[in-house]
Amino acid sequence: MTHTRLLLIVAALAAATLVGIAFLTPRIAAGGWLLAFSYVAAFPLGSLALLLIHRLTGGRWGHALEPFLRPVALTTPLLLLLVIPVLGASPILFPWAHGQGDAITHSVRLIYLNIPAYVIRSLVALGALSVLAIILPGSGSASAPLIAGAGLVFYGIAITFMGLDWILTPEAPFFSTSFGASVAFTQLLSALALVAVCAPREPDPPDLGALMLVITLAITYADFMAVLVMWYGDVPSRVFWFVERLREPWLALAVAAFIFASLIPIIVLMFARMRANRSALRLVGASSFVGLAVYQSWLLAPAFGVAAAGIALLAALAMAAFIAAAVAGDWMQRLLNRARIAHG
């Protein structure tokens, strides 16, 4: 049995189990799927963002990482399939879909917080990023900087809306103007952690440890400053979100996320010899995997309950196995090759 077939069987079994759970507890199951989707989507989207950055800046790091980033970035169109359960479950996922939330103004409901607008934003963002992943030229192409520049502008706008829609709107009216940057840093770090864990020992990708250190410091700083500003601003419509997450068991998740996603990677990567050590990079990558998963649970699970975090593990298994099968089977590249042949 090939690895691709085995991965597809795992994905199908996990998805079938989730369908059974959804019949019993539809909102919790949908919340678990949303949580897992927001975590798993970071890997193709982060890989795409890194490729866009390299098309603009150049550098040996991008040439070394591209063989690992390109196949993952090409799976971005699969997110259009994985987001369908989220869009379909919108009426039970989001309280604002039923007019709840007295603090949400009529104009916000009319323009932004309504199901048609939510669906359109998600499909336009993922659809455009999917097209970008497919048409992105090689680093030597003359058109690469122009496409990458426009693509990064769109990515910045799209990821801001997607971060708000997928993660913050379950508890509207809470929002953060810096949250889009936090989501972008999370996605970049997810892609680099994947390379750190999965890339072969030789040759070592240059500058991988330095890139991981910089982005880890960036997300730690951005999140700390957001909490500091909003907490001391003492605006009830924002502080309630943090107060809820300072209770157990969510406080334990916050501590664990800080240890695994920030503290361990920063301490290890501060030393140049550790940044050049392949085993140390694998350790940091694995720590980031765990820390970012816990961080995502801390962000979203309080809106749906502890059970949603457990269901998210099963949902993440189904999604990760499906995407891994696409990468192992090189589905997207084969489709692109067939399209090129068909069109001459």
Short note summarizing the structure:
With 344 residues, the chain is mainly alpha-helical. The protein has helices spanning 3-24, 26-40, 42-57, 60-73, 79-82, 84-88, 90-93, 106-111, 115-135, 144-168, 179-198, 208-233, 236-245, 250-269, 272-275, 278-300, 306-329, 331-342. 79% of the residues lie in helices and 0% in strands.
Residue-averaged pLDDT, rounded? 90
SSE ordering: HHHHHHHHHHHHHHHHHH
Helix content: over 70%
Structural class: mainly alpha
Low-confidence runs of at least 5 consecutive residues: none
Distance between the termini: 35 Å
Q: Describe the biggest sheet?
A: none
| SS summary, helix count | 18
Assess the beta-strand content as a share of residues.
Answer: under 5%
Number of strands: 0
Coarse shape: globular
- The value of Rg in angstroms is 20 Å
What does this structure look like?
The chain has 344 residues and is mainly alpha-helical. It is 79% helix and 0% strand. It is built from 18 helices and no strands. The protein has helices at residues 3-24, 26-40, 42-57, 60-73, 79-82, 84-88, 90-93, 106-111, 115-135, 144-168, 179-198, 208-233, 236-245, 250-269, 272-275, 278-300, 306-329, 331-342. Helix 3 crosses helix 11 and helix 14 (250-269) runs antiparallel to helix 16. The two termini are 35 Å apart.
